[in-house]
Amino acid sequence: MVFGVFDIIHNGHRHFLREAKKLGKNLVTILPPDAAVMLLKGHLPHHTLSERVKNLEREALADVILSGDDISESWQIVKNIRPDIIALGYDQQKLGEALRQNFLKTPEKVKIVSITPYKDSSLHSNTLRKNIV
User: Fold this and answer.
1) Does the N-terminal or the C-terminal CB of the chain have fewer CB atoms within 10 Å?
2) What residue numbers bound the domain in which 116 lies?
3) pLDDT, tens only, 32-75
4) What does the pLDDT read at residue 87?
5) Strand, helix or coil for residue 2
């Protein structure tokens, strides 16, 4: 399982998804609803949730693409899917810490791993967003 906004898909996202897919049989990708993006990042995504889903489907890198929880850090999607592994990007340290804190208290055994950045950490959606007119 991976989490991400995947608003403007770039080679860093592709690398992340390919590497995560190598870790298991099926890759489940969780995208936050637009309102959750607003809370997390302080702005709405450039693309709506349905557009982000369609864009990821075109990439054909995820086996399943789902909308995330409406309530931040409820982790209902994780509890429902029960992944063996959650792969995080190099820039998802806060998410990793929140997941670890939550799942230390539960009997579920979820392995949390980090995926290294594509080439370096300079390729990021925030940088690409600034270039959109």
Assistant:
1) C
2) 2-130
3) 999 999 998 999 999 999 999 999 999 999 999 999 998 888 89
4) 98
5) strand
Angle (nearest 5°) at CA 52 between 48 and 57: 150
The mean pLDDT value of the chain amounts to 89
What backbone phi and psi angles, to 5 degrees, belong to 28? -100, 125
Number of domains in the chain: 1
Q: pLDDT by residue (tens digit) across 88-120? A: 999 999 999 999 888 766 666 789 999 999 986
- Helices (H), ranges, the chain: 11-21, 34-41, 49-59, 76-81, 93-103, 125-130
* C-beta neighbour count of 63 within 10 angstroms: 12
**Rounded Cα distance, 5 and 47, in Å:** 10
Six token digits for residue 36 = 């959750």
CATH of the domain at 36: 3.40.50.620
